[in-house]
Amino acid sequence: MRAGTWVRRVPADSKQSAWLGTEYIMTLYATMDPAQPIEDTLSIFAVMGGLAVALQIKASIIQPAADWTQRMPTTSLRSTREGTIHRSS
Question: What gap in Å lies between CA 8 and CA 85, rounded to an integer?
């Protein structure tokens, strides 16, 4: 199981263009298949299931979902997660 925490940048006020802080959004716990290489620098991980947990919310991951990981020229990784979460009442 893989876990990741999402935060977003929050501006100090509307007149400044610089981002000065972060805000907690959620933590994602996902069970994933092994990587499927698409190109030398791009791989896709199929998400088989998992949970999204926020401050007062627990939701399950609905398939299809995937994690696209691209190796950048600077040796950093760019990760994109696509999928749907469902909150039960």
Answer: 18
Pairing assessment for the beta strands 58-71 and 42-53 based on DSSP bridges: antiparallel
DSSP string computed for 32-78: EPPPEESSSSEEEEEEEEEEEE-SS-EEEEEEEEEEEEEE-TTS-EE
Q: Among 37, 46, 48, 47, which residue's Cα sits nearest to residue 70? A: 37
Token pair for 24? 């907690």
Q: How many domains does the chain have?
A: 1
* pLDDT-derived band at 69, boundaries 50, 70, 90: very high
Q: Domain of residue 79: give its range.
A: 2-87
- Calpha distance 5→17 (Å, rounded): 25
Residue type, 54: A
For 46, the token pair is 């199929």
Q: In the predicted model, is pLDDT for residue 57 greater than 80?
A: yes
